[in-house]
Amino acid sequence: MKKKNELKIALTLMLGLMLVTSNVKSQNYPSIKIDGNEVLISDISKFPYWLTAGQTLDIGSNVYAISVLQYYISPAAGGGNDLLFESVLNITSLQTVPIGKAWKVESVGLDMSAAVAGATGATGATGPQGPTGNDGATGPTGPTGPTGPAGNDGATGPTGPAGNDGATGATGPTGATGPGGGKFSYISPSQGNKTWTNCYTACLNLSSAPASPVSATIYTDWRMPSSAEIYYYRKTFTAPASGWGGNTWSNIMSNANPGFEIVLESSSAWTTSDLSWDNEYNLRNCRCVR
User: Fold this and answer.
1) In the predicted structure, residue 177 carries a pLDDT above the cut 50
2) CA distance readout (Å), 172 to 167, 177, 258, 261
3) How far apart are CA 108 and CA 127, in angstroms?
4) C-alpha span between 237 and 186 (Å, rounded)
5) How many other C-beta atoms can be found within 10 angstroms of the C-beta atom of residue 53?
6) Higher model confidence: residue 157 or residue 78?
7) Structural contact between residues 36 and 74, judged by C-beta atoms closer than 8 angstroms
8) Are 67 and 106 in contact (CB under 8 A)?
9) pLDDT tens column, 193-225
10) What's the confidence (pLDDT) of residue 109?
11) Phi/psi of residue 251, each to 5°?
12) How does 214-224 read in b/e, with b if 16+ C-beta sit within 10 Å?
């Protein structure tokens, strides 16, 4: 009878010890919580662990913190999605994966209480090494940064030395000889000082009554006079109301010099000094005849 009681006591103590040991071991196993479910963290647990938007993550028993890499899910140009690294998260309480994000659970930091554990079992045989995974797709190139502000204009450099005068151009071809003198009855009012070309054009386009002899009729068939015609009307016509002008253009080109002949209209001496030549671009008195 005594032996039976001793056997019962021994069995009871052994069973109690096994329960205590099992409880201690279960309390010291580290874990994390994924979507509210407790997941064991041990040597056979393989990281990383991926979570998608809407899933939850929290620390469990004997875990201090969970290290997470957060990625932004970006549509790829050729189809599918790219994961763009965004930030490192340190999870110490219940958290939810945001919309448009993906979490990569890298590792966990264990609490010091996890150091108390049961006896370590024998190490199992090392399994064969798995094949090397393919390289991930290259992420898209980031947007180009904004252009920096334009720099200030540099100081204006000193003015360079003046260049040498170019060579004198060739003399242009001789212009056509103006219309020759002919019979005429009237002289126009003075058209003011003009170049030879402008005077020639002004006479062709003139619409005016004569200045001498005086008439109220408007004529449009005016032309530039020859030098002989200027001498003629100066000698035979009555002076216009505005008087005679100075050197007056004729339509005769000088034979000896480049340019056209001019006659001093106001002269009454009638000598060769009243006739001269001038460059066509100078301004001289302009009068027309018809």
Assistant:
1) no
2) 15, 15, 10, 18
3) 24
4) 9
5) 13
6) 78
7) no
8) yes
9) 999 999 999 999 999 999 999 999 999 999 999
10) 85
11) -95, 15
12) eeeeebeebbb
Tens digits of residue pLDDT in 224-261: 999 889 889 988 999 999 999 899 999 988 766 668 88
Residue with tokens 């549509």: 75
pTM of the model: 0.38
**Token match 């030879």: residue?**
196
Q: Give domain limits for the chain.
A: 29-112, 193-285
Mean pLDDT, the chain, rounded, equals 81
Token match 């448009």: residue? 100
Answer yes or no: are the C-beta atoms of 289 and 184 closer than 8 Å.
Answer: yes
How far, in Å, CA of 208 to CA of 215, rounded?
Answer: 10
What the block records as the tokens of 53 is: 């938007």
Tokens of 288: 């027309």
Whose tokens are 């932004």? That residue is 72
Which residue do the tokens 């009068």 mark? 287
DSSP letters spanning 56-76 = EEEE-TTEEEEEEEEEEEEE-
Structure tokens at 166: 């170019």
